[in-house]
Design goal:
This protein is an alpha/beta fold. The chain contains 17 helices and 18 strands. 26% of the residues lie in helices and 16% in strands. Helix 1 crosses helix 17.
Length: 566
């Protein structure tokens, strides 16, 4: 089943009356969090998702902190969200696609793509998809979402997060203050690559070059490029990869003789506007994680509750002042008209309406009332619902005109489905958006300040010998699928054919299978991750292309990995 899959207890009755239950009334079902191992898709094959914690190295302390400078041991883990064909024991894998999220992204941002890859595999050539939930996701309090998911009642989450209501023995403490997270200042590129290394190390060393495909989206694409070029005590990161996939992202400065930013910019900040890069000095002093301008950190809770409501009560009209505050910003409205819960989610995320274009999908169109043009707070010309006497509803991607690419139900579940999981990273480290530009040329020498003074060891870019797939959609593709974003990387590796020990060894870069670029002008920045796996959606063809690339560059002999118990 490719639509919405909800892990709910059948026949559960929520007791809302005060006092003791009447004689013969069913006892309340004890609360249990969502299962760490569950079937999340059943058609045409059963797909199991397992949530596993992997221990990773401790980062250095914040050298400028007077308190909370050391990372607590509880945060020296990442979640590995493993998708595989359902089998006991797990089938040996032909390929393992390790999926690295982008800016503000959590593991469930890859939910649809991960399932699409596993769906295409067979018992004789099984593909596993491992989506990374970075260590910052461990800080989030997902308790209210988990309880609401299990109980099937979205308003439990609303009461927990915004009314201070205790829920299953716990009370929400609010957004974590910056001063309590001083240790996050060192959660940058070096720490993230060390964490990613710990995940890839779960695959036997002798099998990584023929079975591990590293995939990155947006900022995650820069991170995986830099992982491939990283110097691990003299050994390059690409030695452990069968292939590299960059989804609508790239550093853009591959092979440049000059370091992309100056030391002063790195230490003091650079850029302008709402999304400027904060410098290391301020990160260590006070600004450890990113806060969305105008929306704040509560917007992730609003999005998750909108997903829950769209999934469980799609046709209800919910009155919610907190949600409406976010909607006024996202849709350029002074007042928010009545709309069904599914319409609220669609308007908030569809590219024709929302101001946050970097988080947009194409999931259908609004209906039920007038839709008028407006100029968004971030400068785009968009549409919004305006009639306060109408009740707006939503037409899903496959029935809209023109058709879209992402199913609203799958978008909804990506915001809550599973234990402590969601689409976003509430506490995204500012250091992780600062470091990648400093290492973006991939050829840092031991005398270059990012490597010498800040441990950014992206050095082996010129000799990267794994096959590369670059995909341009709305971001690096400039809204028209422009593949020139990958020209600098193509030039950097042009003289390096596919290396020894690889399936296609000796293949020159002039061959399209050694360095492949694809343009998808019809896909938003998020559609390549969340698009519906249906011929109606343009994402379907992209999933086919990704699958074919992975199969071409991985070996037939499978690998068997032993992972911790979920």
């Amino acid at each position: 089943m490719r639509g919405l899959l909800l892990n709910l207890s059948v026949g559960f009755t929520l007791l809302v009356a005060c006092g003791s239950p009447e004689p013969g009334a069913p006892e309340p079902v004890p609360y249990m969090p969502p299962a760490a191992s569950a079937i999340v898709d059943a058609s045409p094959v059963a797909i199991r998702r397992e949530v596993i914690k992997v221990q990773v190295p401790a980062p250095p302390p914040n050298p400028d902190a007077t308190a909370n400078g050391d990372t607590p041991p509880a945060y020296n883990f990442v979640r590995l969200v493993r998708y595989r064909l359902d089998s006991q024991p797990a089938l040996p894998a032909r390929a393992i696609a390790v999926l690295v999220p982008g800016f503000l992204g959590g593991a469930l941002s890859y939910d649809a793509l991960a399932r699409a890859l596993v769906r295409r595999s067979t018992p004789d050539a099984a593909i596993e998809a491992w989506a990374i939930d970075r260590r910052a996701n461990l800080i989030e309090d997902q308790h209210g979402m988990d309880v609401a998911e299990v109980r099937g009642d979205p308003e439990l989450a609303a009461s927990y997060y915004f009314n201070g209501t205790p829920l299953e023995g716990k009370t929400y403490d609010g957004v974590m203050p910056q001063e309590s997270l001083a240790f996050m200042s060192e959660w940058g590129l070096a720490s993230t690559i060390a964490d990613l290394r710990a995940v890839i190390d779960l695959v036997p060393a002798s099998e990584r070059k023929t079975h591990v495909v590293l995939v990155g989206h947006s900022l995650g694409a820069s991170i995986v490029e830099e992982y491939a070029a990283w110097d691990f005590a003299g050994a390059p990161g690409y030695d452990d990869l069968a292939a590299l996939v960059l989804v609508d992202g790239a550093t853009g400065s591959e092979g440049h003789a000059d370091i992309p930013i100056t030391r002063q910019e790195y230490e003091e900040g650079f850029g302008a506007g709402s999304f400027q890069r904060i410098g290391l000095r301020d990160i260590r002093k006070s600004q450890r994680y990113f806060v969305l301008p105008l929306l704040g950190s509560d917007v992730y809770l609003v999005a998750a509750m909108s997903g829950l409501r769209a999934a469980h009560r799609p046709l209800d009209v919910t009155s919610d002042s907190t949600r409406d505050g976010a909607m006024r910003v996202l849709l350029g409205l002074s007042q928010v008209p009545d709309m069904t819960n599914r319409a609220a989610l669609g308007f908030a995320f569809d590219r024709a309406y929302t101001a946050l274009s970097f988080a947009a999908v194409s999931c259908g169109e609004g209906s039920g009332g007038p839709i008028e043009p407006y100029h968004s707070v971030l400068g785009d010309d968009l549409l919004h619902p305006t009639d306060l006497n109408s009740k707006y509803d939503w037409v899903d991607y496959d029935k809209s005109r023109p058709t879209g690419n992402t199913a609203l139900g799958e978008l909804a579940q990506s915001w809550f489905l599973g234990p402590e999981l969601d689409f976003a990273e509430w506490y995204f480290p500012n250091r992780l958006s600062l470091d990648p530009p400093a290492a973006g040329n991939l050829i840092l020498t031991t005398d270059d300040w990012p490597r010498k003074d800040y441990g950014l060891r992206a050095a082996h870019g010129r000799t990267m010998d794994m096959p590369i797939l670059g995909v341009a959609a709305s971001l690096v593709g400039k809204g028209k699928g422009d593949t020139t974003a990958f020209d600098a990387l193509r030039t950097l590796v042009a003289a390096t054919p596919i290396g020894p020990g690889r399936v296609q060894q000796g293949l020159p870069r002039t061959n399209g299978d050694a360095f492949k670029v694809l343009g998808y002008p019809q896909l938003t920045h998020i559609d390549p991750l969340m698009g519906a796996d249906s011929p109606v959606s343009q994402a379907h063809g992209w999933y086919d292309s990704l699958y074919n690339f992975i199969m071409l560059h991985t070996a037939k002999g499978p690998t068997t990995v032993q992972l911790p118990t979920p």
